[in-house]
Amino acid sequence: MVFDSNPPIPDFPGLAGREIAMARADNLTMPPLRQIFDWWQARAALGQPTLDDFDIADFGPIAAHLYVAAAIDGGFELRLAGEEYIRLFGFKKGWIWHTDATDPVMRDSAALLAFVARAKRPIRTIGRLELIERHWIELEALVCPLAPAHATQGDKFLGCVAALDAAGATH
User: pTM score, two decimals?
Assistant: First the structure.
């Protein structure tokens, strides 16, 4: 088996307005995302990190920016959502992205998580997001794959989001 260290990013039309790429230290602009990416890279050097490897107490100053999602039958469930994540997306713990959703944003969000699980590498998105409930929001997001801690568990993800303003600072 040959591992593709740079798999092509599929087209996600429901996520139009956002640039999607493999995360790299030099393409992350927001400090909370760089902190999570650095943590993920350090752990990945020893093998795919698990949620058990992550201690939120070590990330208190950026906890509001963090979220955790997990694979479930037919999609992905939001298991933890910090206040900034909730403010930006409006989703709270228990939200489900269905892989067969009729809404293109929800369906492509699930497809993006599935891609991250297959690629086993963090993805960075940056750009505009519009939700029905609010106007355009400029943001940067990072999704890091986590290996199951036990064989009976599915894929999990540690993510981080930050709003952008004209100067590139968080709100």
Answer: 0.86
